[in-house]
Amino acid sequence: MAESWEDKAELIKEEAFPKPLKGVERKAQEEGEEMWKKITDEDIREALFNQSVQKAPGPDRLGFMAIRLLWEWDSQRKINIVKTCFRLGIHPPVWKEAKGVVIPKPNKPDYAVAKAYRVITVLNCLGKVVEKVGANSIAEECERKRLLHDGQFGCRKRRSAVDTVGRLMKIVKESWGRGNTVAVLLMDVKGAFPHVAKGNLIKRMEEMGFEADLVRRVESFMEERRVIMWMDGKEGDSMDVETGVPQGSPVSPVLLSCTFRGCLAKLKNRKKSVELRVYLLLMMWHGWWKGRMWGNAHNDWKDAQRKQQCVHKRMPVGLELNKRRRRYLLDEERIRNPR
Predict the structure, then answer these.
(1) Count of CB atoms within 10 A of residue 16's CB?
(2) What does the buried/exposed string (b/e) look like for 28-41 if buried means 16 or more CB atoms within 10 Å of the residue's CB?
(3) How far is Cα 141 from Cα 134, in angstroms, rounded to an integer?
(4) Rounded-to-integer distance, Cα 31 and Cα 224, Å
(5) Residue 225 in contact with residue 243, Cβ under 8 Å?
(6) What is the pTM of this model?
(7) Is the pLDDT of residue 282 over 50?
(8) How many other C-beta atoms lie within 10 A of the C-beta of residue 194?
């Protein structure tokens, strides 16, 4: 039972930033390759001006509007800062500290438990510029070398939830055309961003062929992070955070995609009577399928559970599926009225 403000902040912090499971012990190479030379001045400018000035500033209170003004006065200084971070393979400690604003989740039955609150992580904007440059570099390399599975839609440029639904509808209609019954299993990764294991990510990025200086900077980005909890109008002390990647960072989604590389390729449907396609979508599902597509299954649901266990066994270390957000969609009308 927490009574003081400090105890409450610690409980909420532990819920929002859980300690990740121990993964592979892996350190990035200390030397080798010079990816930073590929970064152009225009890349840095786009990373700054493509981010909204409406975003809240971090602990340093320096917003994007102020940074844009500084760019107009002395752009070369900002360019040198960004390139130096990549050349040395570091993420400065001042950008590793974030503000954690605690807000209550709506429509919760009991606000006396830590799970009833959400922590909004607010990062320093200048650090986000460097992170955006890194995110663009990693994403472009993934697309150029086709490093990600074709079924991976989340956290990728020029792909959206609409594209995901369109592809799913195409699969459904093709299956209907063959006279099959279609079932879809939707799953959610529980605490995906906080549970990314650093060693596993470093190992995966090296296997994917990323430059050593870029991998070193990702390693530095994930180390020694801290958060200042802000709750009930009061600001607390800086606290250590041992989680993987911060959810509010521009580079976190693409790092999560790298973590899941290879997971989707191992999933294959082996049941002929029901075509079950599994797509691991790293995004919220907003109820695209309602009405007749919702239903309970019997033998097919058992098969869906086996598929879920198959996915769970192939999840990266430290990550697990959220059982509360599992959805199984079955075309019951086609079962009642087969062709």
Answers:
(1) 23
(2) beeeeeebbeebee
(3) 11
(4) 21
(5) yes
(6) 0.77
(7) no
(8) 20
